[in-house]
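Page 47, continued from p. 46.
Same chain as before, 253 aa.
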Amino acid sequence: MIQEKELKSLENRVIRRFHKALADYRLTADGDHILVAVSGGKDSLCLLELMARQARIHKPAIRVEAVHVRMENISYATSTDYLQRFCREWGVPFHLLTTRFDLGNASQQPADAKTLRRQKTPCFLCSWNRRKQIFNLAQQLGCNKIALGHHQDDIIHTALMNLLFQGRFEGMPASLSMERMPLTIIRPLCLQTEADLKAFAQMKGYEKQIKNCPYEEQTRRQAVAQLFGKMEQLNPEARFSIWKALESDGKML
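Result:
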């Protein structure tokens, strides 16, 4: 009985934060046609479920579709059958795209700092090519918004990375209008903690990815995530302080 109450409390918290993000950052409006980018990980599956639920509400009236991009030359995978079934259960049209990119010497250790600055990492190349495919499909489908599954931890980690390595303080905004195309990027999970999303995925029984990305543990983001963990140990309110700073500086819109 206690566990059942805890699970219900978790679900209510996730849904409440989702609706708060939509309202606070004005992420959805009547007539929106939204393409949800689905990687197959817990965050994107949660995003898709929440967006599908929202699409069943008549105000605002929105349409939702999903896309999954497979990268041929990166050896990790999600079950396409599972994603298709997941989308079908929620009544969301599913699109599967396949692409690739040239790794070149991106996977090799650069000789010096100058080479490192010029070199595009596998993570950058993979992300850039996925985004390109998603943007193209969104315009073909007539979507006006693309929903990405970044949560609050992702945004804070990005802000810390930019501060440490770029000399600027900004994360990933909850809403970003593209300059060169009629699209807006929205992040409806921006108020969710990674811990809650992980517990939510377990509660829902989401199927895990078949194989994780081989570069997952090699990025600066991993080190910054560990740094943020130490910051929270030093000050349990660090999350809220950083978030308040981002909002106060107008970095979320």
